[in-house]
Amino acid sequence: GQNIDQPTEMTATEGAIVQINCTYQTSGFNGLFWYQQHAGEAPTFLSYNVLDGLEEKGRFSSFLSRSKGYSYLLLKELQMKDSASYLCAVQRRGSTLGRLYFGRGTQLTVWP
Amino acid sequence: NAGVMQNPRHLVRRRGQEARLRCSPMKGHSHVYWYRQLPEEGLKFMVYLQKENIIDESGMPKERFSAEFPKEGPSILRIQQVVRGDSAAYFCASSPGESNQPQHFGDGTRLSIL
Questions:
Q1: Which residue in B41, B56, B91 is closest to A98 by CB distance?
Q2: How, if at all, do strands B10-13 and B109-113 pair?
Q3: Which of A31, A98, A101 sits opposite B55 (nearest CB)?
Q4: At B86, is the pLDDT very low, low, confident or very high (cuts 50, 70, 90)?
Q5: Contact with chain A for residue B40, Cβ under 8 A
Q6: Which chain B residues are within 8 Å of A33, Cβ to Cβ?
């Protein structure tokens, strides 16, 4: 199977910066997605990394190191509405290209 | 600007009954994926379909579960003779198909088995 690890919970205060890490062990790695999921709602797409390096999109950035099997999601200027679960998902090459392998998610709580 | 539409949002069934979950993909998307989510767990892949074809069903139990995506109409995930362990949130996602395009998710169907 795929080993995708991310912390279960994190807390931070409004206005701060938080980094959510994700490590993975998989053969045939193709790319890595980050999704945000509020309780009882659909996961929403945040970012996609296929090459090493940092992808920046507004307050959110995502980093990938393929050689280390490591990614992080960086959230800046935290807002209360950022309280949610953040899901790391790996995509593999080949016949299973269509499926995503998800970690358990990191529940982020932002305090005022 | 309709996204992925799933219905019903909530479904209650008694043990032994059948559950039918529907998913209409985003406009222009021909690839559909079904995932199951249990409390405190990540999303688990079940099945990947294109129109009239099952591409990958390796995540779906061999018995009682089936999925289809007909030429016309929504994709259907069907669970026969439901058991308590089938209680979960079932999410559908769709994509245009290219590998670098994200999957977009519906709001899910919360299935409860009495």
A1: B56
A2: parallel
A3: A98
A4: very high
A5: yes
A6: 102-103
The residue behind tokens 């259907």 is B76
| B25 neighbourhood in chain A, CB within 8 Å | none
Instruction: For residue range B15-57, list pLDDT tens digits in order.
Output: 999 999 999 999 989 999 999 998 778 899 999 999 889 999 9
Taking alpha carbons only, the member of B25, B95, B34, B109 closest to residue B66 is B34
Tell me what the mean pLDDT of segment A29-34 comes to: 93
Torsions phi, psi for A44 (to 5 deg): -120, 140
What is the pLDDT, as a whole number, of residue A27? Answer: 86
Quick check: A1 pLDDT over 80?
Answer: no
- pLDDT value, residue A94: 76
Distance in Å, alpha carbon of B18 to nearest chain A alpha carbon: 24
pLDDT greater than 70 at residue A95: no
Among residues A49, A54, A55, which one has the least CA distance to residue A91? A49
> Are the C-beta atoms of B77 and B90 separated by less than 8 Å?
yes
Distance CA B51, CA A38 (A): 30
Min Cα separation B82/chain A (Å): 22
Looking at the DSSP bridge assignments, the partners of residue B12 are B112
